[in-house]
Amino acid sequence: MTDLPANLASVPGRLGATGLVDERGLVIEIEPQDELLHHGVLRPSVITFAVDVVAGVTLDTDPDAWTFTTDLTLRMRPTAAPAKVTATGTVLRQGRRSAHFHVEVVDERGAELAVGAIGFAHVPRKPNDPPKPIVSPEDVAARFSSRDRIVRPLREEAEIVPIDPAAGVVELAVRPEVCNPAGTIQGAMVALVAEAATEDLLGSGGRPVVVTDLDLRYLGQATVGPVRSRCRLLGEGVDSCPPVEVELVDLATDRVTTLAYTRAVPVGR
Length: 269
Description:
Elements: E1 17-22, E2 25-30, E3 37-38, E4 41-42, H1 44-59, E5 65-76, E6 85-94, E7 98-107, E8 112-124, H2 137-143, H3 154-158, E9 161-164, E10 169-172, H4 187-203, E11 209-218, E12 227-233, E13 244-250, E14 255-266
Antiparallel strand pairs: 1-2, 2-6, 3-4, 5-8, 5-11, 6-7, 7-8, 9-10, 10-12, 11-14, 12-13, 13-14
């Protein structure tokens, strides 16, 4: 279950997510706290956690295959954080080798806040692989019923280190607090690194920004690290906010583990 945190004491395990199961299937809810916000807006990386869990748990039902996230797209409105967000989803395709899921995220009034699309690859278990636990939606709902929350801003809690903010270079160590059960960086924490790199790069001119769009391609596992970002501006953008290409590189292997394309808007727009 690579969409779940390694344990409930990890950073993604303390985002305040709760779960329930009803006629909509698995539902993940988050009541945003200040530590999850950036300039009053809920971080899109937090929403990716809800997207990943709702989709991954629903689709990962084969005990003879591992299910890995391959790509994730998120679009959100840069509005003031609501009192609660609710994520529900629909299976778009469920095949032997791959699966795709659509997730809607609404606020406490039912107004659309974000939409996400996520893809998975089903990889057969090898004979020497450890047994694979199957976690049902009911198990996840019970697991996410109550836990501690982070007490520092999310970037600080994850210990993202700014290396060269003007160039969008940040770094994250591979440590248990940000990993999934496979021992690699959990998907929402990967999204947070891309988000942090983008906001540093585009905000370096003195006008802060909030990230609204994330397109992530998970290319490989980062199990040693640290992981460092490198960014490239793509053309022109509205209000000096062009799209950004972000590569996340495992410095131990010099391999690109994630490719991201992001967009942001200036604060207050």
